[in-house]
What does this fold into?
Amino acid sequence: MQPIQSLGYNVYFEENLESLLPFIEARGYSQILVLVDRNTNDNCLPVLQNAIPDLIHYDIIEVDPGEENKNIDFCIGVWKTMLDFGADRKALMINLGGGVVTDMGGFAASTFKRGIDFIQIPTTLLSQVDASVGGKTGIDLDNVKNIIGTFTQPQAVFISTEFLKTLDERQLVAGFAEIIKHGLIQDKDLYETCKSVDINNVPADLIYKSVQIKNNVITQDPTEKGLRKILNFGHTIGHAIEGYSLYNDANPLLHGEAIAIGMICEAWMSYKFTGLSEESLNDITNTFLSKYPQYVYSAEFYDSFLELMKNDKKNEDNKIGFALLKEIGDCTYNVYIDEQDIKSALDYYIEAAQLYYKL
Amino acid sequence: MQPIQSLGYNVYFEENLESLLPFIEARGYSQILVLVDRNTNDNCLPVLQNAIPDLIHYDIIEVDPGEENKNIDFCIGVWKTMLDFGADRKALMINLGGGVVTDMGGFAASTFKRGIDFIQIPTTLLSQVDASVGGKTGIDLDNVKNIIGTFTQPQAVFISTEFLKTLDERQLVAGFAEIIKHGLIQDKDLYETCKSVDINNVPADLIYKSVQIKNNVITQDPTEKGLRKILNFGHTIGHAIEGYSLYNDANPLLHGEAIAIGMICEAWMSYKFTGLSEESLNDITNTFLSKYPQYVYSAEFYDSFLELMKNDKKNEDNKIGFALLKEIGDCTYNVYIDEQDIKSALDYYIEAAQLYYKL
It folds into this structure.
């Protein structure tokens, strides 16, 4: 597969990261730092080690896995370790992991000594289709996701389905939600294909297609002034539910699981406000309910959900803006919905899920 | 005085910040946050309040004054307060203060929700001539200055000598060191003028000239790939002494006091390695010694100074690079000096100061 050209860098699709070594060698970096979490240290580092063998020296920085650790404390730990390793401005950071590692590593690199180069090697399905293009880096603060960050492009991204073999099914299913989303907002055929894919064996060309869609959007709107907002379909409500779950559930929802719920709620809004047909609403609802576990929240938490939504970066002047579907494959944005309708959308998921699971 | 055009924004020289109100009104910000420290809250905020009267609402964020507070903990506090105020992406941050406020406020703004607009109103002589152009934002970490930061340009800068009336003489003298530096690296006439200026009454046109010199350099090299390094004259050694003093002295050196020492040391290096005449070395040494208090450090700390220098952002491959004078008004950069000679330069200051104060 040809590399996808993004904003000044390539996304390589290579099982064994063949282009990584020549890429690094051509750049003359003073030093290489590899950021991993415990899981990718064990499961993914061997693939990287094969790609950049002994002739290249690198230091490892390890963080704890999990969204709850994508915070400023861990980021400070990463910065201090970079200092301890004596990293200078010509150092390279390779972020090997899921979204926590690529988002936080990207932020740490983009702010260390006012910015050093970094390469993203996303190892989860979610991060491959979501975090690989767009140049967003970030960490969470006070329960608000990605509230601190920068827009900084990596030097390159490498995607290998080899890493997906190390994931459990729950993670694969969660990540798959972003692929379905890319179909829903821009490509009906992709959405239809998604319905019957074996999630334990996602074909590389489906990931390629998904990255291509996102890349087309973000290269048209690098700093999220307009069009790019369609990528937030499902995310306004999804992020709030995710934030809530992260701090209240012993076994919190994964990002993809939360946005699957968000997409059901926002599909209902699309049906109410932007012309999505009832048939499409039902199809979307059933597609997600058939793949994702039921989640239950009580109406008494709606106000705290709304608070979280208001803190979302995409809002302005305290109104809550949504990206909504006109039909499957066509998405609009800057649709401002009032609080009562948001609550009704939250009700819709609860009722639809109850009905589905009762059947 | 005409505004100075920097990288996409203007530096206005206005006693009463006349252009600020129309500037803000034209932009339609959703919200205005003003970052101050305790001193500027008391002494400088009234000038700002006159410039943007009641018709504009703004919220105040206050931090503690002093370089020791330009750290990640205070920055987290600023971010959290921005969240508490419900700041969205169309909010404006006005940083009203010295380098601590403008550097940290610039960093907080440039990373909050991946970047909101900010205006710098530097209120100390140092920050007016040093932090007003160049787009550097930053905070300190683990005793290393400005190690975390971004290159982000403000929307505008406002300079008023009105604020200088609130400063004590020590701060004025310290800030004046950067004006002398701008003379030394690019403008012999400015340097000669500096020798006889009444520091309690620095004329606005001297500040203007100094900002112009810095602006000419940084617009040619916005991200410090080359030429811009001449602005670091005196800073490699100066930063190390400043970092050391900050953590070891009850009453630590101010930035300008530390780089005055650094300039004496690096003038000696210039004499040894880049052709500065002995006469000029003596002239520079006496100029600084006549204005700045004697500082004493022992040779037993040289190794820790060197450690701090190695962590400085400007170094690559663990070599210590310097910007050095070829003559007064002409500076070169990327001169790599070995450790023994750096120690001799540190000795030179101690001996020159002893001799001067004995006279």
The longest strand of chain A covers residues 31-37.
